[in-house]
Design brief:
The structure is a homodimer. By secondary structure, chain A is α+β, with helices and mostly antiparallel strands. Helices cover 34% and strands 30% of the residues of chain A. In chain A, strands 1, 2, 3, 4, 5, 6, 7 and 8 form an eight-stranded antiparallel beta sheet that branches.
């Protein structure tokens, strides 16, 4: 997982939230994930990546963050994680994956994205088996809480440029 | 999602559990998922699939089922969902994906599998945004509980044969 991947991914998250919900999240400092409980979310979209190497992307929201985002997206007050929220998480994860893959393709790495799977459940943990280290990108939405984007690739991505 | 995909997938799950843990799970009747709360698990491995169409595979275990499986796999008593269990779920999901993808390739559908992502949290729900209907394959491990394999593809898989 190269540092050169991080900035395009951060930019994709900001782009998608701005376009879809008119929200500008404040990115925190990305870090290497060492303990799974560092980024417990209440609803998470997972998108698998295939290409020169295998990867995966997880976008994990606190309940307060996602109800705020979905309220802004739909223009209707949303108060809890329901079917609309699960759909929105799938859609946002897919769009972040698509935007990030375009940015990676510009750097010579061409990836395909799988269908998003959405997991809901209070404070679940995310771990990445069989992968290199995961990078966690934390985002803040002012008083509306936090969300995290996690990305990981097999160790051999350094040799995977096309 | 074709019926012709179901039997090879069921066979892959049984193969992998038998090979890795010496366990023969009893498959139940597969069904179309209509409500997400039908298959709440305590730990789930998600593997994205790309190829002629996008897809995803989720393997979701109750705590009692996975601690039994991991105890059999490792030959050491395992009593709760910990790092070893999360690693095992990632590995089992990856192997089921690999075995199922070989079976699908024999039918003319060539898929790549992404890195598995593992989610842990009591009774989480799994939903599949942007997809065709998900098929749920339930399995029983006698008194040791249940697990579910869910698979879904985009609607257009019928035209995706290579």
């Amino acid at each position: 997982m190269q540092a050169e991947f991080i900035n395009p991914m951060l930019a994709s998250v900001v782009n998608v939230l701005k376009t879809m919900a008119g929200i500008e999240p404040q990115p925190g400092k990305p870090f290497l994930k060492r303990r799974p409980d560092l980024s417990q979310g209440d609803v998470t979209g997972v998108v698998g990546l295939t290409g020169p190497v295998q990867g995966s992307l997880a976008v994990s929201f606190s309940e307060s963050a996602i109800v705020y985002i979905v309220t802004q997206m739909l223009g209707e007050v949303c108060t809890e994680i329901n079917g609309d929220v699960q759909d929105a998480v799938g859609e946002l994860s897919n769009m972040i994956s698509g935007d990030a893959r375009r940015a990676l393709a510009d750097k010579g790495y061409t990836f395909q994205g799988a269908l998003p799977t959405v997991i809901s459940g209070r404070r679940h943990e995310i771990t990445h088996a069989l992968s290199g280290p995961a990078i966690v990108m934390p985002f803040r939405l002012g008083e509306h809480g936090t969300f995290f984007v996690e990305v990981c690739f097999e160790q051999s991505v350094a040799t995977g440029r096309t």
